[in-house]
Amino acid sequence: MSPAELPTAEVRDLPKDDVTLLDVREDDEWAAGHAPGAKHIPLGELPTRVNELAELPDDQPLYVICRSGGRSARAAAWLNATGWDAVNVAGGMGSWANEGRPMTTDLPNATPEVL
């Protein structure tokens, strides 16, 4: 699948509730700030951990997100090639934060941020 054929969605066009989100950023990025309810599998671990996606709802697209959209595009292309209905989130967590979407952090006493 070429980049032009990759399904892509803008954050503003995502459902406000009940979006199935896969975050492929690294552990430190995830810990600093992520969308509540997102599934976290770093891009480099995705091929060996893809079976974990079976626990996610399969009646809607799997939206894939990273910091700015590059890693998530690679992940979404790979997922689509292996039979998943994956959509790249354009602009990534940067756009997520700019749109005012909710974020949480794993760091004690910290304000969620996008690294």
Account of the 3D structure:
This is Rhodanese-related sulfurtransferase. GO terms for molecular function: transferase activity. Residues 15-105 form the Rhodanese domain. This protein is α/β, with parallel strands linked by helices and 115 residues long. The chain has one domain (3-98): Rhodanese-like domain (Oxidized Rhodanese, domain 1, 3-Layer(aba) Sandwich). It has four helices and five strands. The chain has helices at 27-32, 46-49, 70-81, 92-98; strands spanning 8-10, 21-23, 39-40, 62-65, 86-90. Strands 1-5-4-2-3 form a five-stranded parallel sheet. The radius of gyration is 13 Å and the shape is globular. The model has no long low-confidence stretch (mean pLDDT 93).
Oligomer: single chain
CATH class: Alpha Beta
Helix-strand sequence: EEHEHEHEH
Largest sheet: 5 strands, parallel
Radius of gyration: 13 Å
Strand content: 5-15%
Specify the structural class. alpha/beta
Cα shape: globular
CATH architecture: 3-Layer(aba) Sandwich
Low-pLDDT stretches are none
Would you identify the CATH H-level superfamily? Answer: Rhodanese-like domain
Strand order of the largest sheet: 1-5-4-2-3
Mean pLDDT across all residues, rounded? 93
| Helicity, as a percent range | 25-40%
